[in-house]
């Protein structure tokens, strides 16, 4: 995990995207050969991960993952270790491609284990689904659940009945907030796909970097990463919890579904899936530290899985604010109108920055709120109340537009 983040440190991609790309790769490398035993439940660590950001936010890192996974070989062979979905795969071809990559794994006791595994890295997920496709969404929902058999009947083509034994799909897609807003209907947030997707948002503007900069020693990490992926391609069997890690999970979850719990209305369906997400992520953590058999979830794995999940949950609401797509000027107008109304209602009393930031929290991503306040002060739309300690403001007449 840390090796991949280091290997891609010269990529113009934020660290959170690089970290979750590595998490997605490890999950894909485990296919359906590894599972986490949580009480009576068997959880496979497959993930649907969306890297969400504006154009140029660094989603190109997905192509780096695709290239690395494509070069990984089964130990001692020249045979590719993993099946990667083609660039031009269509919704209709998803099941065909899964059937085409059927493989047999020979377990440690000589047993044959037949399954169908596919890694779908899509730097532009909009190419796969340019408009909302209920059929594709239904397939993704069904496959995420890792059924023992997935069956489909076709009205066209030579094969009328597809039967997939033990399918598993991992998705790593790049999307823009505008694409989500224009493509997914409102009911998406109360149905299956949103509940099953880990949305990783970065709204920060990437710093200017020297295009010729190259960190010394990075190239050597590629060989180590390929070796690690090769080793993971042979992992087989269950991952169980140690008593210490199990108690940590129980205490955290029973305290109120794992506080802090996301409260945004569009994340209500996602919240119900957080316990399963933790079970998947602890499996990824165990694999990323290359644990030896018997493979067990240690406290460090639970802590790391929880930290990964809370990191992205903290900024998930910013996705929906970014989807609104309002210009800075429009948000400034709205805040100024709000402040004038509040100023008049309170008998011309100044307004705290906390109140202003609370208004902006529902209008723009968190990283933009302070910029809006600074811009309004710099342009004279608001002025400080210097008679009070701290940050208090009066709404002022807006600066006229130049003629």
Ends apart, CA distance between termini: 56 Å
User: What's the CATH topology label of the largest domain?
Assistant: Rossmann fold
User: On the 0-100 scale, what is the average pLDDT?
Assistant: 89
Question: Beta-strand level of the residues, as a percent range?
Answer: 15-25%
What does this structure look like?
The protein is α/β, with parallel strands linked by helices and about 400 residues long. The chain has two domains: about 1-235, Rossmann fold; about 330-395, Arc Repressor Mutant, subunit A, CATH 1.10.10. About 45% of the residues lie in helices and about 15% in strands. The protein has a five-stranded mixed beta sheet with strand order 4-5-8-3-9. A four-stranded mixed beta sheet has the order 2-1-10-11. Strands 12-14-13 form a three-stranded antiparallel beta sheet. Strand 13 and strand 14 (about 390-395) form a beta hairpin. The mean pLDDT is about 90.
